[in-house]
Amino acid sequence: MAVSTLKDIVDRAFAERYGVPAINIVNDLTMEAVLAGAVEARSPVILQTSVKTVKSIGSAVLFAMWESMTAGIDVPVALHLDHCPDRAVITECLQRGWNSVLFDASTLPVEENQRQTIEVVAEARQYGAHVEGEIESIRGVEDGLGSDAESNRQTLEVSLRFLEATGVDVFAPAIGNAHGVYKREPVLDFQRVTDLVEAHPVPIALHGGSGLTDAQFHDLIARGCAKVNISTALKITYMKSNLSFLKEAEAIDKWDPPSLFAHVRADIVAMTRDLAQQFGSAGKA
């Protein structure tokens, strides 16, 4: 167990049809709390970093935090670089020790996306790392990346050619999902997941997971969504937890940072534990 690979984690989840929480952390507190929540739930977890987080904290500091916090951990964990269009950042993170990367070339023509993804997969393999690929942008802006415009969905044939040519380990299709907070209940193309998995069995990454219903999660996980991305929900939990504590601190005029940290940590641990239960990964460690 302990530090694992993306492929080992998602391949088992795909075979047994449960979803693994893939949670975007923003600092040391959220990293430690997500890992602690996974340990409490006896669940594998994929800890994700955005390009924005890598650049703001620095890959060296982030990876040192990761190594320290996962030393002796007894549930499967992996460190993943989320939505990265910048090849230099991908190289930096792979060299530093990230287990996997999402090369996001979804704004490029499919042919160029495929050509560069083949190169990224070859580079990742040199480090024993794995690659998530996508050929359609997921609607919504997250950490400064993306667009609110719906991208054109590629045909099944185009998707299969991409999967076969690149050998990516995880695939992230657009199925009506979106990053950020849903303004209305999304209309999801469940059948598209089934069609992809039946034609080319590959673990599917479900992006835009914050805000979907239990029924939607369960249906998509049963069809092959083995990696379930959670970013907005962590940000909301983190910010609201801070806000509620600070309002109370102001009311009683008592200012104790360690108590603030403990309060926020408890909320993030609970969120992670609840996600593992919701996605069926609890007890799978």
From TrEMBL:
Q: Which Gene3D superfamilies match?
A: Aldolase class I
InterPro entries named among the record's database cross-references:
Aldolase_TIM, Class_II_FBP_aldolase, FBA_II
Q: What cofactors does the UniProt entry give for this protein? A: Zn(2+)
Q: What is this protein called?
A: Class II fructose-1,6-bisphosphate aldolase
